[in-house]
Amino acid sequence: MSTKPSAGTVCGPASPTAGAQTRLHPLPLGQVRITSGLWHERGEANRLASIPRGLDRLHEAGNLRNLDIAGGLAQGEAEGRIFADSDVYKWLEAAAWEYARTGDEQLLANQLSVTEVVGRAQAEDGYIDSVVQIRENKERYRDLPHSHEHYVAGHLIQAAVAQVRATGRRDLLEVAIRLADHLAATFGPQARDDVDGHPVVEMALVELYRETGTREYLDLAEYFVSARGRGLMASYGREPTYFSDRVPVREATTVEGHAVRAVYLAAGAADVAAETGDAELLAALATQYDSMERGKQYITGGLGSRWEGESFGDPFELPTDRGYAETCAAIGGVQWAWRMLLATGDARYADQIERMLFNGFLAGVSLSGTEYFYVNPLQLRGDAHPEHERSAANGRRGWFDCACCPPNIMRMLSSLGAHVATTTDAGVQIHQYANGTIAAGDLQLDVETAYPWDGRVRVTVRQAPTTPVELAFRVPAWAAGATLDGAAVAAGDYARVSRTYRDGDEIVLDLPMAPRLTRADERVDAVRGCVTIERGPLVYALEQCDQAEGAPVDDLRILPGAPFEVEHRPDLLSGVSVVRTTGRVASPPPAARSPYSTTPADAREEQAGREVSLVAIPYYAWANRGPQPMRVWIPTA
Amino acid sequence: MSTKPSAGTVCGPASPTAGAQTRLHPLPLGQVRITSGLWHERGEANRLASIPRGLDRLHEAGNLRNLDIAGGLAQGEAEGRIFADSDVYKWLEAAAWEYARTGDEQLLANQLSVTEVVGRAQAEDGYIDSVVQIRENKERYRDLPHSHEHYVAGHLIQAAVAQVRATGRRDLLEVAIRLADHLAATFGPQARDDVDGHPVVEMALVELYRETGTREYLDLAEYFVSARGRGLMASYGREPTYFSDRVPVREATTVEGHAVRAVYLAAGAADVAAETGDAELLAALATQYDSMERGKQYITGGLGSRWEGESFGDPFELPTDRGYAETCAAIGGVQWAWRMLLATGDARYADQIERMLFNGFLAGVSLSGTEYFYVNPLQLRGDAHPEHERSAANGRRGWFDCACCPPNIMRMLSSLGAHVATTTDAGVQIHQYANGTIAAGDLQLDVETAYPWDGRVRVTVRQAPTTPVELAFRVPAWAAGATLDGAAVAAGDYARVSRTYRDGDEIVLDLPMAPRLTRADERVDAVRGCVTIERGPLVYALEQCDQAEGAPVDDLRILPGAPFEVEHRPDLLSGVSVVRTTGRVASPPPAARSPYSTTPADAREEQAGREVSLVAIPYYAWANRGPQPMRVWIPTA
């Protein structure tokens, strides 16, 4: 048994090699500690509720039994989806990062016992996918567009890399290496020219290369990235758009098709570009990112506007009610943005991570950590009927038939600290603000803040090298008017202070936290005439139960000029700042036969609607008091 | 061989028995002749292009070969969807109505030869579904939620009823009777308690009862209507909403789930209510119709707002870009409305039929009659990417893998004349206006009109009984200001003139045809701040190729106060009236990174956009010059 690495040396997910072409370098996971505040609380719910309960769910849903059957320890049919194993691997990855964070020995024991189950299921030649091994008569790779066999392998490899980094144990890594060797022997330009319908293995193989130094894994990742857009899905009779297989990655100018697939692929391609120094590939990914942010992303950071195919829509097709915005897509979006941030050092990607984490991602899990949204729309009407398990009208659910999101949330929250800060030769960059500590070599910082409720971030130097060092603070693009030690700093970039620091030095960043009304480009037809309340990094929403006298959310209007009032409510929704402003209740629509009428809109009638106080809560916290009408985009009066 | 019935005696689809509880009675198909104008031209395209080409398509796609295989005349695997036979039957039905209209002997020969193929495929005990017979190892009714076996049977029965009514030939009717007897022996309260996932057999069985007098068929239809909402789909592990199986038909207050299924079921239930005199069932259907019209119908009459499940959305969820509005759903909508009209005599249902026929339905077929839309959205953006066969961004297509719509359009157009007028003891009701003749007993009328291009309808009495008779003219709800012989008449009702008519008497109805701007209820979020141009019964649309200087449709705004100019263009799109008005081209959105901004909307900048002439064409005619940007709802400047 190997020794547990000290927390300060545990590399987190996506740790480029020293030779990688990146501007920024991640900090080891344990070098950032979040000790209080919103992310600490979400991390505790993850540790105390999500992860333990997640293991129970994997037992109950049969995922672990599938592996037992494949390993010869049980008899029976496979349960669940073809990619059932991947949920186990995402849980294992979460458990590993969580162990690095907390050193909980029970969590180590649990992951090692699950690892044993996995190891036993592996075939002699390294192949492993329990559902295929049981259900498909062991016929491998018969329908790669839908079989998810590489996808499952990718999650196993990611879990193995996490395990060895976090625990020092190579148990799962050995399984992963055998599996990766099998893949490398089976697929590629000199073997079978084929690719999985669902990317993720690309990121995983690059990480395995980073961990083991085996160049073959990087080559295979590069092959899988290059294999797309050459007709492989079409050769199975599949329409290629859904699979990100219509256009070669290097030629694509936007994201399309299944959102999670698209962003996982892009993140993997960014990993490949970093390790191979492929500037052309990186540039293509930046173009694609631009296009996504410009016309295919919700204000919550949510990605994917269509239920049909869980996919990106056309540019500016961003419906609120049927927005899909899968929780996994927000996670993949963070993974892609993080890799772009490392590669470019551009603050916009850190802004994007903030937007996705605080809104589209965090809405995916209940405050209790036990229930999940798969789909994250920006509106729920009063008489919405939930006919699908995933419908938000059901409220969050304990688990899903397709349970990709819950363990994905777990691994994201467990490794969140890895996304807070980076280093360069010049110094340290702080991308995300949370109360805690940051250590980078000789430099140790305390970060005091009540962010995102308050915009003041006080950084105190606890230890510093004797030479000058640059501290870089991200000033979010929304934070016009921000100051650093009282001096104005530009929003949408890093404010950098380079000097020789001494113990006890303080730097104070002040981000203006006045609520603001945000509107969308005219081409976003779905929200014409509407605005959103934002405050700091948080998108706000009107939820029915907060509105005075039960004024229906469907009929609320906002008065754009009205003042805001902010109140922090420690008692509400695990502690949130509530934003109040003034609006009106539109007259309920006339009981006409048809909703269409040639009568001109009677603006006066609307204005005659009674004035009400609108109460907005952070979007992420909605539906924690039961599913109910909600809207992010509010029509103006 | 029986004798061909004279056209004047051919009952059309949905012909209630003398004892049925209906206010209005349909006219025999041949008693209404449409001799020129829009519906005549569409009928000719149907006769000369759609129907002949349709038979080729059924050969090419393998539908007829499936029946040949089942009949022992060929060998091989079944091709196409599980319900492939139904496309053949819809074609047979179209051919029958068309034969009644035109007496084309080749069409008779073709339908009899197809009928022979069908007859040979039928099993000894009456069962017939060639795909099940071939592909499913003859295992019948294994998965009724999805097998469509009753659905296929329903279309066979409808075709058989059409054939016997139109041609006098009982060939297909004998097949249908054997099939219906098999169904009656197999399903029902005393046999297997089960129901098909896709309604249509209900309408068919009532019609077979009407044709044969066999009460058992009506009873079975009534059973199938009553069987829903009792958990049968759930017993197969299916979510019931999609199948209209969540709530019993008598208790339902709205439509939900798969739109075509929902409206076919409602139409069948209306047939049952008519024949059984079930006023409670009829009242429930009226409530459901209200709810549909109030919040679940597009201005085009289109039904079904979701691609996911081809289904109705929540109330007021009516996206323009992703509106599904399946062509078949518009047809089912007409069928339901027609039955409600017969039952109640309420002009609103005739208004509804007009709206659906001229817009949501007619857009489903190209002017050439050779290409079809499956999905009929109300907006296509400039950079829409067609990743699905059904996507409107592909333009209309010659056929579909799932080819339910094309032959459905054919049978609707072939039997359109049956929906023009009805009789009561008092007289004749004219519901739809088209140039031609109407005969009802002793009364013969000439109808002269260029409707829908012109609002004048001149009815000349060619023969009249010597006793008083009431002529009732539908005055559409949109036709405020209409006059009958110069006297004001109320819109949204029938204008009735009861007197003793003489040969040569003329009655002139004038419907005001000024273009009008229509807006939607505030709860229809998708079109907030937009208006539609309507003229007469037609919904208009802006199509890219008509706009001056290529101003992008995506950026066009309309000036609500601006005057309209109407020009009839016989040269354009088989002859349409074009509506011109004034708008502006909004500045293209700034090349910002994100579409979201806290900058207040700069209305002045928008108004500074240059003024342009907006050119609108009837929605039904769009995409006949290639797929291109189009929008029905236009933002106001």
From TrEMBL, chains A, B:
Stretches that traverse the bilayer: none
UniProt domain Non-reducing end beta-L-arabinofuranosidase-like GH127 C-terminal: residue ranges: 515-635
Pfam families: Beta-AFase-like_GH127_cat, Glyco_hydro127C, Glyco_hydro127M
Coiled coil: none
Chain intervals for the UniProt region annotation (Disordered): 1-23, 583-608
GO biological process: carbohydrate metabolic process
Domain Non-reducing end beta-L-arabinofuranosidase-like GH127 middle intervals: 428-513
InterPro entries: 6-hairpin_glycosidase_sf (IPR008928), Beta-AFase-like (IPR049174), Beta-AFase-like_GH127_C (IPR049049), Beta-AFase-like_GH127_cat (IPR012878), Beta-AFase-like_GH127_middle (IPR049046)
Source domain of life: Bacteria
Domain Non-reducing end beta-L-arabinofuranosidase-like GH127 catalytic: 31-417
PANTHER family reported in the protein's UniProt record: DUF1680 DOMAIN PROTEIN (AFU_ORTHOLOGUE AFUA_1G08910) (PTHR43465)
Protein name, UniProt field: DUF1680 family protein
